[in-house]
Known about the structure:
With about 150 residues, this protein is mainly α. The protein is about 70% helix and about 0% strand. The longest helix has 21 residues, at about 1-20.
Amino acid sequence: MTAPLVDILALMAESAAMSLALFDELEFADVVDPLQEFAERTGLVAAIGQDAVQEIISAAFVERDEVPDDYAAQLVRQWGMADSRDRWRHTGEPPPASCDAPEQRRPTANRVPQTVIDAFKIVLDKGDAAYLADWLRDHAEYAAVLLDRLEEAA
């Protein structure tokens, strides 16, 4: 039980250190005090001692004077590599069979958001063919499904 809490505290400390580097308006106490409170509330201080907790927290703040220029790209890559559905985007391997690329998906009746369906009904009620054509052009990814629904209803 202690090991996951140590890992969580370390991740939280890394995030806090990066936040401190990114946002000038933050004070050191603003980001460190919640880490200490977490360690106390979860019993981590009692389990490993205050010195160990402070060592974990302080390790994240060592040499964190600047945020790397590609920090956002690094985060996206880390998150993508951690998700088996997205790992292929970073490794060059083919996507998993269960992962349809978004451009290959065609909206189906159950994938059209209700807000789009409601808007389509309002546009139809206007009775303006040119307005309808423009609206369908602006919502091309749903046009075929919406027109199919319209034909079924007629």
